[in-house]
Design a protein that fits this description.
Layout lengths: L2 H35 L4 H5 L9 H20 L16 H21 L2 H5 L1 E4 L8 E4 H25 L9 H5 L9
Antiparallel strand pairs: 1-2
Helix pairs in contact: 1-4, 1-6, 3-4, 3-6
Length: 184
């Protein structure tokens, strides 16, 4: 194998591990946020704090909505809403169980990908602009995980505004855990 082919193969191998890390980190961060939200009163859970999806309730629902939309695009399977602000779960307990299942689904799907698939393209129709789009999978996965991080930032802010201690969510903290150490 030539040096250039070896380098390309190594970059692809790193890409798979990169997305496996983000899937595992995503689950870890969502678990931490949900543990913090678990201590919030019902009144504070639905309080409009000025975030894009207003409340803990709205933002947590949006994150599941978006994950389901993207996973449907990626896999062709699963339920997906046609509205980004849909409320799929009225109570936090049910939402938290759905979050756990969705994170397991993400980890499983990412684990099933091979390097060829990661380098490939896929076609989908956006909810916000129903015109078919074809994109490379790997860069779109970067958006998928970044989107969740973006909205966990909103949840962090809402918890702070409500007077609750938000958990540290930095990727480096995850990498310093026993679970995340394999990615550091």
């Amino acid at each position: 194998m030539s040096a250039a082919k070896y380098k390309t193969a190594m970059e692809r191998a790193d890409m798979k591990e990169h997305y496996e890390m983000f899937a595992a980190y995503n689950r870890w961060a969502n678990d931490r946020v949900c543990a913090a939200v678990d201590g919030v009163s019902d009144e504070d859970y639905v309080r409009d704090c000025g975030a894009f999806f207003k409340s803990l309730h709205g933002t947590l629902n949006h994150m599941i909505v978006a994950d389901r939309i993207w996973l449907r695009r990626f896999t062709g399977e699963g339920e997906a809403s046609n509205s980004l602000d849909a409320i799929l779960f009225d109570d936090f307990g049910t939402l938290r169980q759905a979050r756990i299942l969705e994170d397991r689904r993400i980890i499983s799907w990412i684990g099933s990908l091979d390097e060829e698939t990661l380098q490939g393209e896929f076609t989908y129709t956006p909810v916000t602009n129903p015109v078919q789009v074809t994109q490379r999978l790997a860069p779109t996965l970067a958006h998928f995980f970044n989107h969740q991080t973006h909205h966990r930032g909103h949840l962090h802010m809402i918890l702070s505004v409500l007077g609750h201690e938000p958990p540290p969510l930095d990727l480096i903290y995850y990498q310093r855990t026993e679970e995340g150490a394999r990615f550091s």
